[in-house]
Amino acid sequence: MEIATTLVSIAAVHLLAIASPGPTFVVVTSHAIDGRRGAGFLVTFGVLLATATWASLAAAGLGTLITQFTWLYLALRLAGAAYLIYMGVRMLLGVVRNFPVELRQESRSMSGWRAVRAGFLTNISNPKVIAYYASLFGVVIPSDAPGAMFVASVATALLVSAAWWSFVTLFFALPLVRKGYVRVRRQMDGIMGSLLIVLGGRLLVSR
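User: That's the sequence. What structure does it adopt?
Assistant: Structure tokens below.
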């Protein structure tokens, strides 16, 4: 019973965390909005690979260790900030030039590897994620819990992530949603691009 309660707690907290709008949401929706569910699911697969990486490191007790290596944490943070700002600038350039946004334009012909890479880099480029998992597991999981509990916790985070991002992909690929989006496409691209730049900037200056 205690194991079930712990896993439900992890699932609830994790769902609330990933449902908050952020870089991953922008990237997943930008690939799904043209109705290419395949591209959206490949991006989601990349996100899950990054989730598995960070969550596994945190479960193994390496999350706190990584955050204590100042130079490594700083390098990851700077790389992540640069990547988010780069994507945001690309989206804004598409708006200014009145061209289809490159992120979605590429999704029509992008290889499976490039779609997976987009999802993976977006999620892995934020070192704060490992701090989140380390805190989540550290607070919810008892200190004397068996190793199987940590494995189950990582699996729970993956399942919740897979369910949420699959839902987002399917929703934004719906014809009705796409049709409504076409009317405000430039405005939304401008908002999404600006959001990515702001998030990258916050990551750049945060401690």
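Residues 70-96 form the longest helix (27 residues).
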